[in-house]
Amino acid sequence: MVIETKEEVLEKILSEKKPLCPHCDQEMNLWEVPPFSFSDGLGWGTPYLYICFNDECSLYVRGWDEIQENYAHNASCRCMCYPGTQKYECIPVFSPMGGQGQIIDDQVLAEQEALKQATKRGFEILTDAYIAKDGITVMRLLLDATEPARVRAKAAEMIGDIGSLEAIEPLRSIKFGNQIIQNNVDQSIGKIHERHFTRECPFCAEIIKKRSNICKHCGQDVAGR
Order of strands, edge to edge, in the sheet holding 76-81? Predict the structure, then answer.
C-alpha cells in the first residue's frame, strides 16, 4: 500500500482539470480540509476537496430557504466534489463566508511553493554543513526563526552529531515553541555531553567532566550526583 504525503496529493490534484459544479456550471475552488470533520466524525478521507463558492449557485441559493423551512436552522449547502472523481455531495455552511478561509488560491499556492523551495534549499545547506562538520552553519539555521520548521528540526537533530561543547550554552538558553525542535535540541545536548564525557553541574549548571567529584566552577561536591 502506497501512502502519499499531503504535498504529493496536492501536486497530483493540481495536474488535473478543475471540476465544474453540476448546479451552476461554474469552476469549483480547491479547498483544504480543516483538521476536524462534520457528520460521522470519520473525516473526509482526503486532505483536499473541491467546493463551489459561487453565491449564485442554485443549490446554495435555495438551500437557505429549504434548511430554514425543514430544520429551522440558518444555514445552506454548497456543492463539493472529491478530487479525481465525479462524486458530488453537499457540505453545510452557516454563513456566506463559511469555509472560505480554506480556499487554496494562487497566493496560497505561491506561498506553499516558496516554503517548498526554502525547505529544499535548507536541506541542501544542512547536507553540505554536515559533511564538512560545520556546526556553526547548522546552528545558524537552527536559531533562524525565518527558516522552515522542518529545516530547523533537522538542524536540531544534526547539531548533536557535530556540535561542540560551546553549542550547549545557546541551545539550553533558548526555549523553542515547536515541540519537535525542542525535543531534538534536548536530545542533541545529551549527545554532545556523551561525546565529550561531560555533564551539567547539578548546583550551578556549568559544564563539568562526567567523572568530576568537585565542580570546578562552584566548588560543590558532585560525586554520585
Answer: 29-32, 48-51, 76-81, 88-93
